[in-house]
Design goal:
The protein has one domain: 3-Layer(aba) Sandwich (Rossmann fold). About 40% of the residues lie in helices and about 15% in strands. The protein has a four-stranded parallel sheet with strand order 2-1-3-4, with helices on both faces. The protein is globular and about 40 Å long. The termini are close together. The structure holds 4-nitrophenyl phosphate.
């Protein structure tokens, strides 16, 4: 499987989602290719936010080597599934899809936990550390389901 995680800046939520899913894939020797991207290029080349790095570290996941990059049209060809963190990301990515096949790859990640509810992973960027713990827990549960579904 090749899976892309997408949020707005690619420094808070999607780097965590990438780290968590890649870690689960590695533990099961699944050889999945996991990456992440942002819908905006503002933070291109930056490390993940230090609060995402810290919460990942707490769970023995190293996301230090990740760098923010914007979503590219070619990602539709490369990835089997594109998980977005919120409705705004969903609308931005769907607007770039040219075919039904491309559109069908785009999914809201919390629909794995709460089917058809279209819940958002809250953006923790402007909040405190508690927000990052909350995001971590949500993404960990969603990624466990993704692993079970496609392994
Ligand atoms: P992310 O969080 O989309 O989870 O990476 C944000 C990062 C940056 C900004 C907003 C949200 N920003 O406005 O620059």
């Amino acid at each position: 499987m090749k899976i892309l995680m997408v949020c707005l800046g690619n420094i808070c939520r999607s780097p965590l989602a990438e780290g968590i899913l890649q870690d689960k894939s590695n533990q099961l020797s699944l050889n999945w290719e996991v990456d992440s991207a942002g819908t905006i290029a503002t933070h291109e080349g930056e490390h993940p936010d230090y609060r995402s790095i810290e919460v990942a570290n707490k769970h023995k996941i190293d996301i230090n080597n990740q760098r923010s990059r914007p979503f590219q049209i070619s990602d539709f060809d490369i990835y089997d599934l594109i998980y977005v963190m919120d409705e705004s990301n969903y609308n931005d990515i769907i607007a770039l899809a040219k075919t039904e096949n491309e559109k069908s790859k785009v999914k809201m990640i919390l629909n794995e936990l709460f089917p058809n509810e279209n819940r958002n992973v809250p953006d923790p960027y402007f909040g405190g550390d508690e927000g990052f713990d909350n995001v971590y827990q949500m993404l960990e549960k969603a990624c466990s389901i993704i692993i079970e579904k496609y392994k």
